[in-house]
């Protein structure tokens, strides 16, 4: 489910992702992100902190231009990594995203989940694929945010194709300690968890506005709010973007009561009487 009032580009799948962009002042999108105010590094520092609505810094719009948001959903990087087809799709996806970004010059990009196909990725560091998926946006200096779909930290599934002539590949235990790996089932390959994916994205990138979400909602991770502010006043919101982790992979496919309560609590605090 998704509500979005200001996206010229939509390549969406509604399968497992929720972005709820709550309402907008009619005049809110006359503007464009300002390149120099506030500096994105400061913005990022502020946004990294535990989310306290009253301290929430924001994206800004610039007078006289529309604020454009590009959505990239279901990119599925790392799919069929053992064939030529899979890696070629990733190359193609980078090309398509690059063209879209060059043609549309969006102010903000949202990676709407299923960025990678973790159940196809047999390496421990799936952030390498995640990184490839966000690279076109980063290369153009555009800020972005990401949330999870149900494939982003799904456990690896051995492809049937591997059980033919080349033989069966070895199973690697995630922890090298023999004692912690007493039975074969403990040695199945779990891949990179959503918390690790998100932490790596945040640590390695100045332009990301993604958050790991309130700890009391973990292991549901990508639950956070971003504010888009007016050009005149950085405190004055024109749009709130609520991001939800709808689960899947290492976590059940749910929006939990706890997430719903979090949403209610935060929205009452930052947007009392639904003014925006
Ligand atoms: C995993 O990938 C990320 C993103 O490319 C990189 O920054 C990080 O250093 C990698 N970690 C390891 C252990 O290779
Ligand atoms: C594995 O062993 C090393 C040293 O023997 C230890 O420091 C580490 O905490 C162990 N890891 C786990 C997951 O048990």
Automatic annotation (TrEMBL):
This is Calcineurin-like phosphoesterase domain-containing protein. Keywords: Signal. CDD domains: MPP_Dcr2. One of its GO terms (molecular function) is hydrolase activity, acting on ester bonds. PANTHER family: METALLOPHOSPHOESTERASE DOMAIN-CONTAINING PROTEIN, PHOSPHATASE DCR2-RELATED-RELATED. Residues 67-195 form the Calcineurin-like phosphoesterase domain. The keyword Ribosomal protein does not apply. InterPro entries: Calcineurin-like_PHP, Metallo-depent_PP-like. It holds the Pfam family Metallophos. Residues 1-28 form the signal peptide. It comes from the Eukaryota. GO terms for cellular component: cytoplasm.
